[in-house]
Amino acid sequence: MATAESSSHHVYVGSDVIVKIIDAADHSRLSREIALAPHLPVGLTAPLLDSGLHRLGVRDVRYACYARVPGVAPGMGMPGVDGVSARLLAEEAVQRLCRLHSWTPTGPTEQMLREPLDHGGFTSRAALFAEVENLATLDRHGTGPRRLLNGLTAIAKRAPLHAQAVVPVHADCHWNNWLVHDLRVTALLDFEWARYGEPFDDWFFLARFSDPHTETVLDVIAHATTTSLETLRAQCEVREAAYLASDLCIALEHPDTHARMAVDRLRALEELIVGRYWWHHTR
To answer: How far apart are the first and last CA of the chain?
Structure first.
């Protein structure tokens, strides 16, 4: 089996199967994905074939074995994808996400999706203000220019009072987690962050990581969901602010291990605040 790139797992790809392995003590998100897999809408993701714990020396490892679905991930920013193809893929992705959002989990599956999950996303205006204040406190050396912190504060002031938990969301559906074959979406992978939330939690990921096709994807979402583009932009902006503030706090708390993340998130924050990422096409 060949190894595949992953930031959080050991992933091995065979001709018919894909295996994910992680130290069982690292986090419980793979267990969440394994528990969800048999109950998700049919055809949404790769079928789970087997899973469990395995003793390896002095530690336990958790594994999940999936049937290999045809296709490859378009990748962050959909490199090499033309505008027409990007629209077609976005339309199919939105259809699949709408199926997820209309799914009604029951019993233990519903309970698991409603469990508190420290996902780093937007939960409330008050929580976003608190995260920005924490970021300002941690940033003793002025890593983030004051104008960027002021920009985050301005976004927080415009944020809704609370995020709702009304539908199942994937909450990590960037284009590395989709499989595409012959310009058809074949699967959505990696349900480790799935939870109850708002559809905007998924629309943010789909649009933000479609650059340079963000405007196309926003247009597809707006038409499919009868949501105004202004509302979409505002909701996506709030979610990006929350994720960036959360990640930057983590990076500043652990500078030795997250230096690269700090650089990446500061660049994204510059695009968000100074470049007005979600609004620059409206000027």
So the answer is: 50
Q: What is the pLDDT of residue 59?
A: 87
What pLDDT is recorded for position 63? Answer: 94
Host domain of residue 243: 83-282
CB 113 within 8 A of CB 242: no
Look at residue 278 and give its three-state secondary structure: coil
- DSSP H helices, 143-228, are 146-158, 199-208, 214-225
Report the pLDDT value the prediction gives residue 145, as an integer from 0 to 100: 84
Q: Compute the distance between CA of residue 187 and CA of residue 281 in angstroms, rounded to an integer.
A: 31
Number of CB atoms found within 10 A of residue 13's CB? 13
Mark whether 236 and 145 lie in a shared domain. yes
Nearest to 46 by CA among 61, 22, 65: 65
165 & 230 share domain: yes
- Considering the domain architecture, whether residues 38 and 177 belong to the same structural domain is answered as no
Q: Which residue has the tokens 């799935």?
A: 194
The answer to whether the beta carbons of residues 13 and 4 sit under 8 Å apart is yes
Total Cβ atoms within 10 A of residue 134? 16
On whether both 171 and 253 belong to a single domain, the answer is yes
Mean pLDDT of each 10-residue bin along the chain, 283 residues long: 80 93 85 94 96 88 95 95 97 98 96 92 97 92 85 97 96 97 96 97 98 96 98 98 96 90 95 96 79
The residues, any chain, with a CB within 8 Å of residue 180's CB and separated by 6 or more, are 71, 72, 73, 74, 89, 186
* Domain count of the fold of the chain: 2
Two tokens, residue 18: 């894909």
Tell whether pTM > 0.85.
Answer: yes
**Cα 87 to Cα 94, 180, 185, 233, distances in angstroms:** 10, 13, 12, 18
**Predicted pLDDT of residue 3:** 86
Q: How many whole angstroms separate alpha carbon 93 and alpha carbon 185?
A: 7
